[in-house]
Amino acid sequence: MQRIVLSLTASLLALGVTLAPFALARPDATAAPLIEGKTQPILLARMVVTATPLPE
C-alpha cells in the first residue's frame, strides 16, 4: 500500500512540474486580429519559420 501511495505522489509531482510553466505563462498583450472567412474565422498573426537546407 505504501508503494502505491509513493508512486501516485511521485506521478502527481512530476505532472505538476511538467504543467507549471504552462500555468504560469501569460498571454501576449496584443492579440492578433480575426477576420471573417467563408467557412471559418482567419487569425492574422506573424509566424517565424526557420529552415535548413536538405541534403542533396
Structure, explained:
This protein is 41% helix and 7% strand. It is mainly alpha-helical. The chain has a two-stranded antiparallel sheet with strand order 1-2. The chain is elongated. The model has no long low-confidence stretch (mean pLDDT 81).
- Tally of helical segments: 1
The average pLDDT is 81
Shape call: elongated
Relative strand content:
5-15%
Give the end-to-end Cα distance, rounded to a whole number of Å: 59 Å
Helix content: 40-55%
Are there runs of 5+ residues with pLDDT below 50, and where? none
Cα gyration radius (Å): 21 Å
Decide which structural class fits the backbone.
Answer: mainly alpha
Describe the largest sheet: 2 strands, antiparallel
Number of strands: 2
Strand order of the largest sheet: 1-2
H/E topology pattern:
HEE
Q: Top keywords for this entry?
A:
56 residues, mainly alpha, 41% helix, elongated
Q: Layout of SSEs?
A:
Blueprint: H1 2-24, E1 34-35, E2 42-43
Antiparallel strand pairs: 1-2
Brief write-up:
This protein is mainly alpha-helical. It has one helix spanning 2-24, and strands at 34-35, 42-43.
